[in-house]
Amino acid sequence: MLQRAVDRPSIERVQPLQLSVVIPTLNEAGNVEALLGKLGVTLAGIEWEAIFVDDGSSDGTPELLTRIAQSDRRVRVIRRIGRRGLSSAVVEGALATTTPIIAVIDADLQHDERILPDLYRAIAEDAHELAIGTRYAGQGSTGEWDDRRLKVSRIATALASPIMKTRLSDPMSGFFAVRRDVLLEAAPSLSNVGYKILLDLVASAPRPLKVAEVGYTFGTRVAGESKLDEMVALEYIELLLDKTLGRFVPVKLVQFGAIGMLGVGIHLALLWLALNLIAAPFAWAQAGAVVGAMTFNFALNNIFTYRDRKLTGLNWVRGLISFYAVCSLGAVANVGIGSLVYEQMQGWWIAGIAGAIVGSVWNYVASSWLTWTR
Ligand code: GDD
Ligand code: MN
User: Fold this and answer.
1) What topology does it adopt in the membrane (predicted)?
2) pLDDT band at 218 (very low <50, low <70, confident <90, very high)
């Protein structure tokens, strides 16, 4: 017995950590100190640590956190460079922990940290696997939200219900605690797009989870500003699509195809304008419309479909040229396959569609490889 104690490497003996609190930050310098103060008060009696995951804040947040972490052992900081995304930040922070229970809370003090001990105990003592802070049950409320934001949140929540394996009153909440092994089990299936990590989690877990809900009132932001913009709705739809269609077709292909359809509209509009406004010869008008439509498709795919590897400056020009090249080959494939099908079946529209599909899939595969290289 004595012998074993002597042989052991000298690891300092401390109380084992019980809870990791993952906190995503993007320009939250005005909030993190206050949050840590509040966590210290509310989590007294629990062995906890805070893991901040910062995505390149420009307001001094990571520097401030680094300074705090140097004198406070409970604080750790993960800095990500060149990447953005609330969900993926949370997952990365959670995977960097070793505690049996992981909580997630916003840095901006809008989540009421005083329910954290309840969330923790629901898992540690009551055998739940997941415990969420909810604004739509028990004592919960959305605080000072206007009608518009309430409506949007309701619609988003309704849209989520088909993909949830676990019933939640507030799947939009980013405030929850989860058992570490449950998160790890779901991790390989997470979509990791956008903001809705809790929804992603209950949609990706292989089975319904045993869940507890604790009401809280959503606070008003005092310092800093919200990062939710127009893209958030799009990313939400992307998450829903990935969780449904995503098993069969890549969501990027669906987006690429939808933009392609818009491109057809642009093509026809440009053709009409060239023929009617400047009385261009048909071949010239058609050529101009093709270039216009390709440019339009490139620009839109760069903004939406390939937002995560967006090209700018000189790379934008290079990308456009490679996109023209890819699409030219796509057109050759389109005409070739179309003609082949037409010879076999004589159906002009089946041949047309077959050619268009093969051409588009080529454009998608080749451009994701050559134009929007990782
Ligand atoms: N690392 C990282 N990367 N953090 C981010 C990013 C990002 O790209 N975007 C936002 N954050 C951080 C913010 O700094 C903040 O701590 C937290 O994530 C929430 O961002 P807000 O911009 O304050 O969003 P919100 O208040 O509108 O949304 C919150 O409420 C929703 C409920 O209506 C979030 O908690 C959502 O998850 C929640 O669903
Ligand atoms: Mn917020």
Assistant:
1) Multi-pass membrane protein
2) very high
Ligand 2 centre distance from Cα of residue 122 (Å): 25
DSSP tag of 217: B
Per-residue confidence at 109, pLDDT binned at 50, 70, 90? very high
CA angle 344, 350, 351 (to 5 degrees): 55
Among 240, 251, 158, 154, residue whose Cα is nearest residue 204:
240
What's the pLDDT at 108?
A: 95
From 53, 57, 79, 106, mutation site for ligand 1 pocket: most ligand atoms within 8 A of C-beta: 106
**Whole-angstrom Cα distance, residue 321 to residue 305?**
18
- Residue located via tokens 């009551």: 126
Burial class (CB in 10 A: 0-12, 13-18, 19+), 159: middle
Tokens 């460079």, residue?
81
Across the range 249-257, mean pLDDT stands at: 89
| Ligand 1 atom with minimal separation from the 80 CA | 1
pLDDT reading at 5 higher than 60: no
From the CA of 203, how far away is ligand 1's center (Å)?
20
Q: Which residues line ligand 1 (CB under 6 A)?
A: 24-26, 28, 53-55, 84-86, 89, 106-108, 110, 172-174, 195, 226-228
- Please state the pTM of the whole predicted model: 0.82
The mean of the pLDDT values for the chain is: 91
E strand intervals along the chain: 19-25, 48-54, 75-79, 101-104, 130-134, 176-179, 211-215
Q: What is the best residue among 195, 199, 217, 220 to mutate for testing ligand 1's pocket, by most ligand atoms within 8 Å of CB?
A: 195
Q: What is the ipTM of this complex?
A: 0.96
Residue % of the chain over a pLDDT of 90: 70
Tokens of 69: 């972490």
**Within a 13 Å sphere around the CA of 171, how many CA atoms are in the beta-carbon half?**
24
